[in-house]
Protein 1
Amino acid sequence: MDDQADVVVIGSGPAGWAVADHCARNALDTILVAPAPTRAWTPTYGLWTGQVRPLPPGAAFIRATRLLAADRTLDRGYAVLDNEAVMAAYTATAVRTVADAVVGIEQGRPPGVALRSGRRLRCRLILDASGQPGRLGKGPRGVRVEQTAYGMVFPEASAAALAVPGEAVFMRWDRAGTEWPTFLYAVPLPGGRTLLEETSLARRPGLALPELKRRLMRRLEKAGIDPGDRIGTEQVRFAMDAPPAPVRDSVVPFGVAGGMMHAATGFSVGEALTAAPLLAAAIAQSLPRGPDAVRRAARAQLWPASARTVHRLRTWGQRTLLRLPPALVPEFFDAFFAIPEDFQDAFLCGRDDPRGTWTAMAAVFGAASTRVRAAMVSASLTPAAARALERGAGE
């Protein structure tokens, strides 16, 4: 059996639902397909409060009452999605859902999506929001740069020794000798709960989850928090080194599947939410002119030259983290959070702002120590030249 639509979106995460919602708002007949398209998400999704505006009516989020980063109070809003409320808001939209698994994409006129059940979804455009690159095609190979984390959820009163109820904590470092540095990430959750998570930012490969759990238990013990009070756990592992994915034929990769992840922080949901309405509008305007026009419009919207430049600059930041000696990683972020907050905003949220991103990185360079500066320079060099520079900085 074949179903017809203007757009088929593959994937029911925040990126998939965001772009499906905005396609439907642009009067496009939209189908979203995933094995469980209306099931509420289980991961914790954080974003800056300036990025929540594109959520559908009825969506909810928890706004942190205060944000602490590297022991500084930041004048910036941070929020965590209320997953159940957001999913209820999305499922109330005009998007049609199909509960099935995608087994293949069929190019042609019109293109189609083949499902495990034998069903076919025919459409004019396919949006791949299926998550990590490689699920529906070839992704980066080899040992990946990963972010990993192990967290426990507590009633907010039980977690108060590490996180004041309602507050968010970034990068409270465990500066334990020569170990690879990890930090506490603590955020308020719906229902008066708090997530306490031990996090390793960018590492190749990611720090093992059992080690992160061990460090979290050590942190809890020092704070006098009983792990027996936990009411849930969370495990995080994802790759951070995917390049921008090309728009090919009738498939537009979007969100993490399209390489839309901040290469230095791992954040992706906020960028997907803010990009979704712009992409959907471009699709709606170009679709009547045919598939070539849609491809051009999607490429121009998602990956203009400015966004590609920013991605390269952020990847440079990632390489800096990978080349820093463990003891200097917290120092790098101390320098970052010491620069003016408008510079921080440009680096964290300016997806197509190369000037702002470069200005922020230059400010970090100016605020950093000589050894951190050497790592930033070496990140742009060949491996042999980088080793020579690092030897010189250590003398």
Protein 2
Amino acid sequence: MLTRSTHISLLNQLRDGIDPAAWREFEHRYGDLVRNVALRRGMQPADCDDVLQDVMMALTRSMPGFEYDPQRGSFRGYLKTITGHIIFRKLRQNGRSRPLLEDEAGDIRAMPAGRGGLSGDDSDLEMLWESEWRQYHLRLAMRTIETEFNEMDLVAFAYYAVEGRSVQETADALGMSVDQVYQAKSRILRRLSQLIEQQVREEG
């Protein structure tokens, strides 16, 4: 199991380049985010995996000199810019996008957020990214939830809050009272809200 580090400490570990486990944790955290954005952009699953690998390679090149400065923009915007450029490159290879912004060596420029990076003919990528970013935070928070709540409460939450079963159906299926189902949902939702707020705050 990967050790959960704070957002900024993980970035520092990636920048220093001395801990391979930091890159594994980064992929564990952000892999689904990058893949899902590429998938929703219309790419095939195999191409989505290639996008993730290219993002990791681009970050490997840029992170040694990376200095996290919230005044210049969020890491979310930084990662979005790199991911967007790589998706455009893949689409361009298939004749579906305009040329990328590249330097003389052909490496993607890791531009700070707020200085562009999304092609004018693909502004829906911004909306896709924000949607997937919210889902990313939910998935990350749920990993903590799964370690903090007992199995019965988690199943009750899944049945009632996620799958949309009625409270009575959920109670009957699990041998719980209706009040216990309500309480499980309330406790988990309250904790989810706390975790997501903390995660967003740690992003800077």
